[in-house]
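R.M. (postdoc): so does anyone remember the format we settled on? I'll just put the structure tokens first.
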């Protein structure tokens, strides 16, 4: 059983002495968020899925091919700072296909709380530029949503980069 790490409120944004939590992830370009709309099993009633997570906004991409990456989870408060943090840590931004593949394996996540995938924003009419976010809560409740890429948070949340 893995230990879930929560973000400390008193967190600083310098590179810590201990490395950030990591997780290996594999998938391909046909892994899409629409697969997240069919939760099965015991957790079915404990999952909220935003209706924007669909093929309409997040299409498959067979040209992406198979991927085998390591996810690195790091704390942020403002989404507009993520590109600089990725650069500083030597990471690259994930795609929304990485987010979908992660959502299908969210039980293996080494962290808990809100997890944001800072992929290239997807424009959704009436909402704006959005990215995929996951939120795990107590008692296994999970939320899969689209968030604005201009969001700012009172407390740090996790963002994901690819090594």
């Amino acid at each position: 059983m893995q230990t879930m790490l929560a973000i400390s409120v008193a967190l600083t944004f310098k590179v810590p002495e201990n490395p950030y939590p990591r997780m290996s992830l594999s998938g391909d370009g046909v892994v899409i968020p629409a697969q997240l709309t069919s939760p099965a099993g015991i957790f079915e009633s404990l999952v909220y899925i935003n209706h924007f997570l669909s093929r309409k906004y997040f299409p498959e991409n067979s040209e992406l091919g198979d991927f085998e990456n390591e996810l690195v989870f790091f704390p942020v408060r403002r989404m507009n700072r993520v590109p600089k943090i990725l650069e500083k840590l030597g990471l690259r931004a994930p795609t929304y296909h990485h987010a979908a593949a992660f959502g299908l394996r969210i039980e293996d996540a080494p962290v808990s709380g809100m997890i944001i995938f800072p992929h290239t924003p997807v424009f959704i009419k009436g909402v704006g530029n959005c990215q995929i976010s996951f939120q795990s809560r107590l008692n296994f409740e999970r939320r899969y949503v689209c968030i604005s890429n201009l969001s700012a948070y009172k407390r740090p949340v996790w963002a994901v980069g690819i090594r």
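R.M.: ...and that's the designed sequence above, right after the tokens. Also worth knowing: The CA atoms of residues 16 and 74 lie 10 Å apart. Confidence is low (pLDDT under 50) at residues 9-13.
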